[in-house]
């Protein structure tokens, strides 16, 4: 028999498998049992469409994964190339927090370290401001404080809020007030459209920003001689580089989406300004029309504060993204800041 004769075969894709199917699958059940996890005794058994698992080496983004909360243990089971792996952590070390754009994550060490479970998959929607995210935050907080019973939370992020409607990225504009100006009704509709388009653009920008940061972090570790006080092996460096390259490819796809969303937001903003009375600049043009008509202050501030991004082009590479990001920051700060 050859050198690799006993090598395990590659696992099939489990992307479409539900929670019960995964728990019954012999490969998953064996790995979960060997890790000391008993789903029947767990307070939390949550099937995730996607997660990012960082355990000191290169972060992995398995699809799907199962998050377990059992007594003093948090664990996540996921398919690697040839086996189902289970990463376990002490609940006492867990720190539930959110990223800058609201996605939930659990750290088991310093926030800037590579040890934690992160949940930023769009399908799971575990983000502040969404029904799934808000409920997830409540459940994890209760678990960390020992307030859950066995089998209390079993399912998917969506099953946690079965009656909840999806939350729109942007709230609709309030109804247009009565006006003698027939164009005002059109302006209100355009403002609502601009608000939604700008919100979509900013959500995509946040995704790109966090993905670019993840690439930078992985590259930083790949180039580091020492990690956590120990000299890093070349195999570890290569693993981090490979992970960075994979994340960079995903970033390029996200940047393409950002460019499309920015173009749409730019057009909506221009259409709105076109119908507004002339003023010395775009800010005053919008303010002079919106403020006297009682436009919601939060909506007004959001549109005006982010309209500058409609004139951006972040490109489709990490280098172009950071260059444009620096340009926009400099433009916002202005001279002398």
Q: What spatial order of strands do you see in the largest sheet?
A: 5-4-3-1-9
Query: Helical amount among residues, as a percent range?
Result: 40-55%
The class by helix and strand makeup works out as alpha+beta
In the predicted model, the low-confidence regions spanning at least 5 consecutive residues are: 163-171
Description of the structure:
It is a single chain. The chain is an alpha+beta fold and 337 residues long. The protein folds into 2 domains: 19-160, Roll (PH-domain like), CATH 2.30.29.30; 182-333. The chain is built from 8 helices and 11 strands. The chain has helices at residues 19-24, 26-34, 131-144, 182-222, 234-274, 282-290, 297-306, 318-333, and strands at residues 44-48, 52-55, 65-70, 73-79, 84-90, 95-98, 104-107, 115-119, 153-155, 226-227, 230-231. It has a 5-stranded mixed beta sheet, with helices on one face. β7 (104-107) and β8 form a beta hairpin. α4 (182-222) packs antiparallel against α5 and α4 (182-222) packs across α7. The longest helix is centred in the middle third of the chain and has 41 residues, at 182-222. The relative contact order is 0.09. Residues 163-171 have low confidence and may be disordered.
């Amino acid at each position: 028999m050859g050198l690799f004769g006993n090598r395990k075969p590659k696992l099939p894709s489990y992307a479409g498998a539900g929670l019960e199917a995964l728990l019954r699958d012999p490969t998953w059940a064996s790995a979960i049992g060997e890790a000391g996890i008993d789903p029947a005794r767990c307070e939390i058994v949550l099937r995730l469409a996607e997660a990012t698992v960082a355990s000191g080496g290169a972060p992995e983004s398995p699809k799907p994964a199962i998050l377990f909360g059992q007594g003093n243990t948090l664990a996540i089971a996921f398919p690697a190339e040839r086996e189902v792996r289970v990463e376990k952590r002490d609940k006492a070390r867990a720190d539930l927090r959110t990223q800058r754009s609201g996605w939930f994550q659990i750290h088991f060490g310093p926030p800037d370290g590579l040890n934690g479970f992160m949940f930023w998959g769009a399908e799971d929607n575990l983000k502040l401001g969404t029904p799934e995210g808000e409920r997830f935050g409540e459940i994890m907080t209760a678990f960390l404080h020992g307030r859950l019973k066995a089998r209390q939370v079993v399912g998917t992020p969506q099953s946690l809020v079965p009656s909840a409607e999806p939350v729109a990225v942007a709230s609709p504009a309030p109804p247009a007030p009565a006006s003698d100006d027939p164009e005002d009704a059109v302006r209100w509709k355009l403002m609502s459209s601009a608000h939604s388009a700008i919100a979509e653009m900013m959500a995509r920008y946040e995704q790109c920003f966090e993905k670019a940061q993840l690439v930078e972090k992985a590259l930083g570790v790949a180039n580091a001689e020492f990690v956590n006080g120990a000299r890093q092996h070349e195999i570890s460096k290569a693993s981090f580089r490979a992970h960075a390259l994979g994340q960079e490819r995903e970033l390029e796809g996200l940047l393409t989406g950002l460019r499309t969303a920015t173009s749409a937001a730019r057009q909506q903003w221009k259409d709105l300004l076109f119908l507004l009375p002339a003023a010395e600049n775009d800010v005053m043009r919008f303010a002079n029309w919106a403020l006297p008509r009682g436009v919601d202050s939060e909506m007004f501030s959001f549109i005006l504060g982010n309209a500058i991004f409609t004139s951006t082009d972040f490109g489709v590479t990490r280098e172009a993204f950071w260059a444009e990001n620096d340009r926009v920051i400099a433009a916002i700060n202005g001279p002398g800041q």
